[in-house]
Amino acid sequence: MPEPPNYLDPKILAKLQGLELKARLIVEGFISGQHRSPFHGFSVEFAEHRQYSPGDDLRHLDWRVFGKQDRFYIKQYEEETNLYAYILQDKSRSMGYGSSAPTKFEYANYIAASLAHLLLRQRDSVALVLFSEGVERFLPGSTNPAHIRQITHALEETVPEGKTDFGATLHDIAERMPRRGLVILISDFLGDLSDILLGLKHLRHKRHEIIVFQVLDEYEVTFPFKELTLFRGMESAQQLFAEPRSLRAQYINELNQFVGSLRSECLNNQSDFVMLKTSDPLDIALASFVATRMATSKR
Amino acid sequence: MSFVHPLLLIGLVAASIPIVIHLLNKRRFRIVDWAAMEFLLASMRKNNRRLRIEEILLLVLRTLLVALLAFAVARPILGSGGLAAFLSGAKRTAVILFDTSFSMGYRQGTATSLSRGKEAAGAILSELRGGDSVVLTSFTRSPHALIKEPTTDLRLAAAEIDRLVLSHDSSDALAALESVYETARACDAPTKTVYLISDLHAISFNQERLKDPGLVRKLEELSRVAELVIVDVGFEEPGNLAVMPPKIDSTILTPGSTFTVSGIVKNYTPSPQTLRVDLLLDGSTQGTTTVKPDPQGEASVSFIANVSTEGTHVVELKLEPDNLDLDNRSYLSVLVRQGFKVLLVDGAPGKEKADSAAFYVKEALMPEGGESLAAAKPEVVSVEALPSIVFDEFDVVVFANVARLPSEVVQQVASYTERGGSLLFFLGDNVDRTFYNESLRALTGCELREVKTETAGLTVKDYSHPAFRLFKGLRLTRIESATFKSRWLVKVDADKDTGSSAGTVLMEFGSGEAALTERRCGDGKVFLFTSSADTRWSDFPTRPAYPAFVNELVRYAARDPSRSLNIAVGDNLVARLPAEFFARKIDLDMPGGQQTSLSPVPEGNWVICRQPSVPYAGVYTIRAEGLERQYVANLPADESNLQRISVGELRKVLSGVEFKYRRGYRAEAGPTTGESPSEITRLLLYGLIVIALGELFLAQRFTR
Questions:
Q1: How far away is chain B from the Cα of A228, in angstroms, using its nearest Cα?
Q2: Residue B270 is part of a domain; what is its CATH number?
Q3: Is the Cβ pair B32, A246 closer than 8 Å?
Q4: B40·A225 Cβ contact <8 A
Q5: Which CATH code fits A10-34+82-296?
Q6: pLDDT at B665
Q7: A90 touches chain B (CB under 8 A)
Q8: ipTM of the assembly?
Q9: Which terminus, N or C, of chain A has the lesser number of Cβ atoms within 10 Å?
């Protein structure tokens, strides 16, 4: 019997049409791979009692409390407490780079869509922000499962372009999100590190939980070029004519230093940091998210 | 430093290939739109200087690699002192002049002068070191450059020396030394040595040639620009016996003719010799005799021979073997014909046959109804018919009382005598003195003055002359019995160069006036008889001696048809053939079994076939459809005298020319110990490998 396709593999996903479908396949594939549902327990778990008022569903009456105290109390469950999630996705031109399918932007889309799908299944509120030099598009939060269509549609019709300006953008977003929630930031973070960190600190200051997904292409990490190459900046007019093999070691060193700094600053900022290559399976992203979410719920 | 294959140094151009590839690569690149540009620029900023140095280092290594490869292929050679010699540029050029004249074939035991010369040349080569160069010239009478430009390929020089063979020519060492003057002068080696390897044959150092101041100056200069070493490979007191080319007593041979073959056997030894001499006719022995030439003397030998068929025949004299065999044979090619043609130009035809000026000459040569005494075939023509006559078809042209000749005929007869034809002028009352003195004096060598009418007798000055040998001692047919009434008084011209008489007076009238003169013109002879050929001025034609006189004179005058058949080694073989041979294939069989084809070239009514500078002594046979003609080439006679020139004499002859004398030659140093070309090449190849590995290592390291 042929093995079913692994929809967590970005290369397989890249061949499919429709981001919503892809998101559903990712989530289902992720859940079916777990021994137990990571959501069971907190979404239906008892949270607190409140006094019965007429019109309440009698199925939620706590008969044990009535037997002891002769008062009607309604059980209130965790699932009823909505999480406000903000998915912030970089749509700058550098995100359009891809040595092979999918590009960084497409990969980020998979992450954003699948997380949105996962959250909406929990009836959490999911908002989407697409940004480059500033906020380019904003979908307000909603718990309606149909909201996934708006999210995927917005992602699908977006073309990566423009420069990234993390400083201004994150400050702007921090001010525009009134309720504290979970900020999911997806970008290649190829920009000024101090700007990025200032933006993250501002979000954290607003008491948001932050999970950072840095998406890089395989070639950006390994720099495998051999022939003489003219490198042209995707977000600048800079060019470099170079023998790549002679630069590889230093380049990788520079990149690792940057990623290391970003990672350590995120951790210092009590934010989660996940570095993903576009060739990595999507369950790494989801697992990271779940781990973060569970840690958050315990706080 | 020098190179075995210097032309291959052109491969050094290939050293530019890495640079060209580098530049081409700069034009061939891919373009990548890159997001992480900052990291790339940062790494570039930090590595720019290092990258440039690495790039230049790799480029230099690659260029050096290709240049070294081209260098190795050209096989560089360092001098004996290795690098020190290279740096100082010390090298040496040996110019070897090798005598290959036939005297170098002189043998004692198993050794010949030639083999000793080869040993000496080998010893000279063995003294040379890697980087030294050689020039090689063999010489006989003329030098022949075998290695013209200095070469460091000593193996090539050794092979050329090994291939040297004896020539059949004599030698001229002075010409050989002169020939390398320019080479030695132009050569830029700091040390130059000219080795003259020879048996020091005396004739090779012809003192007459040293009267040329230009030659002396060159030889003196040569000894200044180069060290001159004369290597004597000859044997002490070499004795030799030789036979000179045979001669026959008649130029006119007809089928069935009997003739005498004479020859000279020369004894160039200090002791008397008893020698057997064979006569061969067309390769078969016709007679054998023994001669006893004195020490350093000679002996004559003669044979009677007979030929029965027309065509060319080869007469050969052969001696028994001695230490130098080559000159123990000599050859003569003779042409046997049915007769020879005489053209009689009648200048005063009479009403009756007997009245014409040419009548008695014609009757003497071919009596009406009789046979020719001397196989002559006379043909009588008038002066008017001369312009249409082809003179080359006749062996003798006789003019009888001819007043004058058309100017074009004068030119024709002049060139006819140049080519060997003979003219016989009989004078008479018809003769135009002015014309003879102006137009024919250059041929006759005589000035006509006036007619003298006074009775006189005729006297022969020298009966040993071939034309009069027959009359010696005869009484009934005495020439002196004739009586002459009139004759032209002539003055025999003096020779322009020598001042002596241009012609020879063979007969005189009683009062001492010239009656018959003989003069050489080119290859032919011109005779002038100052009286008439008919009975107008004398009764000579009616005397019994007259027919014999005319026949003997005409026979003597007739050109030697065998003359062009006999040449010397080094001469050009020239065959004049009828025009119809132009379209035929003409082959030439050479001595030793070699064969070649000749290409006929038209010349007037003839075609000329030419084989330049025949190299060997022996018989050369020209073959074509309807033709077989044998030519012979003889050795230069003077080379057989092996008299050597002593060192003392040599120093006198070459006074002003510094030279070293070596009796034979033995290598002073052992075999070449310097680095051989291959060893240097091997070192370079090792260097190549090291550089190639270094380039690989660095390229890997730089791009890791």
A1: 5
A2: 2.60.40.10
A3: no
A4: no
A5: 3.40.50.410
A6: 73
A7: no
A8: 0.76
A9: N
- Nearest Cα neighbor of A157 from A145, A146, A149, A166 is A149
pLDDT, tens digit, 9 for 90 and up, residues A40-55: 333 345 557 777 877 6
Mean pLDDT computed over every residue of chain A: 79
B331 & B345 share domain: no
Q: Which residues does chain B have within 8 Å of residue A235's beta carbon, measured at their own beta carbons?
A: 35, 37
| pLDDT band (50, 70, 90) for residue B676 | very low
Q: Are residues B142 and B197 in the same domain?
A: yes
Residue B566 DSSP class: E
B606-611, strands of its sheet edge to edge: B573-578, B606-611, B601-603
**What DSSP state is assigned to residue B436?**
I
Q: Do A228 and B44 touch (CB under 8 A)?
A: no
| CB-based contact, A69 to chain B, within 8 Å | no
Q: Are residues B461 and B534 in the same domain?
A: yes
Residue B611 lies in a domain: no
Tell whether B232 and B296 lie within a shared domain. Answer: no
Under the banding of pLDDT at 50, 70 and 90, the label for residue B328 is: very high
Considering only residues A69 and B496, tell me which one the structure prediction assigns the higher pLDDT.
Answer: A69
Looking at CA atoms only, how far is residue A99 from chain B in angstroms?
A: 10
Q: Which residues of A touch B26 (CB under 8 A)?
A: 228
- Respond yes or no on whether the N-terminal peptide bond of residue B561 is cis (omega within 30° of 0): no
Peptide bond into A102 cis (omega under 30): yes
Say yes or no for a CB contact (<8 Å) between A241 and B703: no
CB distance A232–B31 less than 8 Å?
A: yes
pLDDT beyond 80 at B564? yes
Q: Which residue of B has its CA nearest to A245?
A: B703
Nearest CB to A229; choose among B30, B55, B703: B30
Q: What is the pLDDT of residues B120-137, one digit of tens each?
A: 999 999 888 877 889 999
> pTM for the full model?
0.55
Chain mean position to CA B355: 53
Q: Are residues B329 and B377 in the same domain?
A: no
In a domain, B170, yes or no: yes
Domains identified in chain B, total number: 4
Structure tokens at B120: 């000496």
Chain B residues touching residue A229 (CB < 8 angstroms): 29-32
- Give just the sign of the alpha carbon dihedral A235, A238, A244, A249: negative
User: pLDDT digits over A110-139, tens only?
Assistant: 888 888 888 888 778 889 999 988 888 888
Q: What does the block give as tokens for B72? A: 């190795």
- B37–A254 CB contact, under 8 Å: no
Q: DSSP code of B234?
A: P
- B524, containing H or E segment: strand B524-529
Please count the other Cβ atoms lying within 10 Å of the Cβ belonging to residue B207.
12
Q: B38 vs A190: CB contact, 8 Å cut-off?
A: yes
Q: For A259, which residue in chain B has the nearest alpha carbon?
A: B39
Residue with tokens 């950006």: A220
Phi and psi for A153 in degrees, rounded to 5?
-65, -45
| A249: nearest CB among B26, B32, B704 | B704
Which of A216, A225, A226, A231 to mutate: most B Cβ within 10 Å?
Answer: A231
B100: containing domain: 83-238+643-676
Q: Which residues of B are less than 8 Å from A94 in CB distance?
A: 35-36
> Is the confidence at residue B497, as pLDDT, over 70?
no
Instruction: Kindly list the domain boundaries of chain A, sorted by start residue.
Output: 10-34+82-296, 46-79
Contact at CB, A247 and B51, closer than 8 angstroms: yes
Using DSSP bridges, classify how beta strands B458-460 and B504-509 pair: parallel, antiparallel or unpaired: antiparallel
Of B33, B39, B703, nearest to A246 by CB-CB distance is: B703
Minimal CA separation from A175 to chain B, in Å:
29
Please report which residue ranges of B113-153 form alpha helices under DSSP H.
Answer: 113-127
- Residue B319, in any domain of the structure: yes
CA-to-CA distance for B204 and A230, rounded, in angstroms? 81
Q: Is the pLDDT of residue B419 over 80?
A: yes
